[in-house]
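Exercise: predict the fold of this chain.
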Amino acid sequence: MASKTPSLFLTLVLVSILSFIFFYTGSNNPHYPSTVGHSISASHNSIKVYIFPLPESFNYGLLQKYWALKSDSRIGSDVDNEIRSRLSAKDFKTPLPYPENPIIKQYSAEYWIMGDLLTPKELKEGSFANRVFDWREADVIFVPFFATLSAELQLIVNKSVFRKKIAENEDYVRQKMMIEQVKNSEAWRNSGGRDHVFVVTDPVAMWHVKDEISPGILLLVDFGGWYKVDSKASNENSSESMIHHTQVSLLKDVIVPYTHLLPRMDISQNKKRDKLLYFRGAKHRHRGGIVREKLWGLLVNEPGVIMEEGFPNAMGKEQSITGMRRSEFCLHPAGDTPTSCRLFDAIQSLCIPVIVSDNIELPFEGMVDYLKFSVFVAVGNALTPSWLVNHLRSYSSEQKDEFRKNMAQVQAIFKYDNGHSGGLGPVPPKGAVNYIWKKVYQKLPMIREAIIRERRKPAGVSVPLRCHCT
């Protein structure tokens, strides 16, 4: 399974895991000393992170449940079913890998962030997150709930109850138990949850507690599924027809990358590309994905354009690798949500992303300039017959080479995997985990101001939620 590591490293990792299990399973109802409130005091080269003491059953215990399943019949599960067939009882006593099923793997940020935080301090090289063991010393409080894995487990075991608030829905039960423990803590009461970090990369994760976790810092792949639209939205004269950003905002939340599914292509491997534009995925999607279906009709018969309908299995992966590496541009229209892991696969394949969207959030903006390696196209222009292919053909070879050169410089920023068993080990200094924490660090002054404003509010006063126009 995992590659061998030096004996000292392995020993320290196992000690860390054992300590983690003991600490979490023995602290279901932690007692916190009273405090006036901690201050935000992150240095410029680190952020102080406290791990909320949830039991192991909310994180690594879910990995054990996943790998203990006899099988998963869903598309893309072939690799995981093969791994299951090789696992022994001994393997369950060591750090387990995150699922390889692309439906789940694309949302694996929770696993790599947690692994970085649990890595022994003496082995952390270049990590921006500095773990502390007293929440009063922390800048933020990380809630270690593998929400994606919890949701996906329920979808595998009993999809029919996924949206229901019943005991048979184990994901719902876990969500409610998690939020009850977190909200009953001194740390939550101290800040109203505004300094608590939740990883919510899967659009269906945390479905039943969205309102309750919304004061916190949410790590999301995009804002799709988090907007609230009033029931009177059809009445254009109503002031309530607007979309209310009552749950998400770029002022406090962080957009994080999907985990890319295709291997990185070094720029030295780049060869002449004989296709203009490539897309592989489902033709029919919901909500914003309607644009995808219209684009399909316009592009499918265009010379030099490949439009393939495919699924996230082993064959689809190989076809995507070939298609992206032989094409100059890769199409990125909205699907069920505004973004997808396809964008990050394109970057790793040095295929220039063509982002068709009038409203999209992207990871690490302000730290990464997407205009240097991507083409942004308004939906109206993209849906004009022949406009898109003519526009892409207008780019010179020199311009496309410059795009790829710039893309090669940011490939590492969108990588989570640190190459260590269980995700426990030094993270790449210029990798995704560090960039996420740096982005959280940038939010701290605004979060601190919100906490202070909330504390001075007179008892019984209700301040209406406002749109954060960002």
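Check your answer against the key: The CA atoms of residues 287 and 336 lie 6 Å apart.
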